[in-house]
Amino acid sequence: MSSFSDQIAAFARKTEAKIETAIRKIALDVFSEVILKSPVDTGRFRGNWQVAIGDVPTGTLEVEDKTGTVTIGKVQAEVLNLKAGDTIYLVNNLPYALPLEYGHSGQAPEGMVRITVQRFKPIVEAVARELNKQ
């Protein structure tokens, strides 16, 4: 028979695990949406979304990723290390990232980040519903 303190500790571990699962899923969903909303010509812009925990990525990449699959795969790998309280960054350091965000592309006239930020609450609610079913 387990003690009350053992039961509390088990509850805390289970709750922390659920929170971290939710945080990881939210980050993956939000970042994937930004990547997939990114306009595509050569695929360089989509391939230059960089993700990191704790430090803001610098520089640019020589990557073309028209579908976004490779870039989302990198996000997926990074969010596996995400813990409650961590800060995770998604940045695109190409010089034309800001103009694209503010309507320079007919493919994404409303931007990518601003549109996704508006959807943050519904994304969080969808993740919460999904995790409550488990």
Task: Provide a descriptive summary of the structure in words.
- By secondary structure, the chain is mostly helical.
- The chain has one domain.
- The protein is 54% helix and 7% strand.
- The protein has helices spanning 4-37, 44-47, 69-79, 97-101, 113-118, 120-132; strands spanning 49-53, 88-92.
- A two-stranded antiparallel ribbon has the order 1-2.
- α1 (4-37) runs antiparallel to α3 (69-79) and α1 packs across α6.
- The longest helix is centred in the N-terminal third of the chain and has 34 residues, at 4-37.
- The mean pLDDT is 94.
Determine Rg (CA atoms, Å). Answer: 18 Å
What order do the SSEs take from the amino end to the carboxyl end, as H and E? HHEHEHHH
Low-confidence stretches: none
Shape: elongated
Mean pLDDT across all amino acids? 94
What distance lies between the first and last C-alpha atoms, to the nearest angstrom? 26 Å
**Major β-sheet strand ordering:** 1-2
Helix-strand category: mainly alpha
Percentage of helical residues? 40-55%
Biggest pleated-sheet summary: 2 strands, antiparallel
Number of strands: 2
How many separate structural domains? 1
Number of helices: 6
Q: Please indicate the percent range of residues in DSSP E strands (runs of 2 or more).
A: 5-15%
